[in-house]
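#struct-queue
[09:14] JT: dropping the first one here, sequence first, then the structure tokens:
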Amino acid sequence: MATLLPSFSCSGGSIQIHSFLIKCGFESDIFVSTALIDTYAKCGFVNSARQVFNEIPSKNVVSWNSVITSYTQNGNAQEALKLFVELQTARDIRPDSYSIVTALCSCANLASLRQGKELHGYVYRACLGGIVIVGNGLIHMYGKCGALELSEMVFDKMQEKDVGSWTALINCYGLNGQGSKAISIFEKMKQTSSVIPNPVTWIAVLSACSHSHLKEDGFRYFKEMSADFGVKPNMKHYVCMVDMLGRAGHFQEALKFINDMPLQTNAQIWQALLGAATVQGDTAVAELAAKQLIKLVPENDDLQVQLANIYANAGRWDDVERLRGRVCSRRPQKNPGISLIQVVQ
């Protein structure tokens, strides 16, 4: 049953199999319960996952990790960190490297440098700093919090580095607008014979070029990726390229790039173009991208509103009224916005 659980769909299947497990008396088995937590989490049923966890009579670190991960993956990083603190005080159980990495990911999602430093202190006291995935998690966390010097400090002190370590550091500098530094780290990585860039590394490099408007470097690496390293570009690589062209304001080139793609376009491609065109004020391209997105995800009413705003900025008030009337007639359910601030004392 623990092996079969991940194969059940989210359309009621997880609830039905849970009922079956209760009837068979399997719900108290730690392996089955942990698999059930993972299944509920993947379906977005975090409360159900937590209920299963609460009813486990004898929890182990794997079950703790599963419920912490369920909150992290479903956007509730604060609750994930709260559970991690509870795990630290649990009897006869101590966080392992996976627990640490998940908690660090929650700190990164919250951009909580204070909590991240506290976790780093725990890693030091627990002598877990020599584990590669923990070091990678620290690099990622510090980068998301904007503490680039601390990211590099952790990287330099790591005795063993893998491709994830290099990729994490490249991504840190790239996302913080220091594309040239990210490229220099990547070039140094290529000189390391023991580490070969993987598809995720190339995404980090192309994203760095995009955020720093390094168009020529971006195209050079995009060609080098397949020609010299045999990595076939996937959709995420193409999205990076469209985003790079859009941020630079080269919309006609971006449209040609999209038309020449060997892959079928998806919502991510048009969303990247829409975001760039909206910022750059190119109404024609923004309208084109928005309409393509509406075709792909017609149930997303936010796109209709975004298109109406594009028309409003261009002074096309008849189109604004037409779209707003259409949206209002459908009585859309708008997801509430969420803001977060952290007061450091």
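[09:21] JT: and here's the second one, same format:
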Amino acid sequence: MGEVVEKGRGFVRSYFYKEHAERTHSQFKSNATEAYHTTTVKHGVKGLSILLLLPLFDIVSGFIPDYMHCVLLGVCRQMVGLWMDTCNHTEPWYIGRKIRLFDKKLLSVKPPTEITRSPRSIVNRKFWKASEWRAFLLYYAFYVLPGILPPPYLEHFLLLSCSIHLLLQQSISISDIKKAETTLVSFVKKMELLYGRENVSFNVHQLTHLSTSVWNWGPLWSTSAFTFESNNANISYFKPLQARGHAGV
């Protein structure tokens, strides 16, 4: 449910780490029923969902965190934003004064053909696609960040990178899932200590559920939105055909 905390001149909802057992389907249903009858929010649940009528559907584990949005376009982009945004110029993690060195190292990388996009300047990061954030998190960061990002923050970021490496394997062992879970929990805990409670976003919190998702549904790549996003071009292709009267296409 999170907690409202101050950030800058306003307020944000923080999802800092708390030890607790994951909610079950029956607990959710009980919370939803109580919220419905009392018209109040019960442990973050606002009321009943029609999805509770689906047979054999677990409303808790049935929704899967999408690592493309949660990790790449979420946490990874958030972290780089914290490092680069001038509003953080007094913070110990700020590296906005080292953009030239950052770009020099990043743009010198010559990726293999498996990575379809060449590195682009960090100055243009707001235009980066999810695949570019993936390449940075999994590969480039190990080369680019040492000597630029202070060691405590570098070590923290690499916890995320190593965890996602484990959960993206073609075949993942039980020990790998447990190792990733421990590492991600450590990342979330240290996020509050290093960057402040106000920067523990919902996407950061979702990291604690990735290992469970992999346990239930398979590697992160098998449930990500990358496959669906890649077909957006096909959707845009059919629209002009329909406009020309090819409604049956």
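[09:30] RK: nice, looked through the second one.
[09:31] RK: DSSP finds ten helices and two strands in the chain.
[09:31] JT: good to know. The mean pLDDT is 91.
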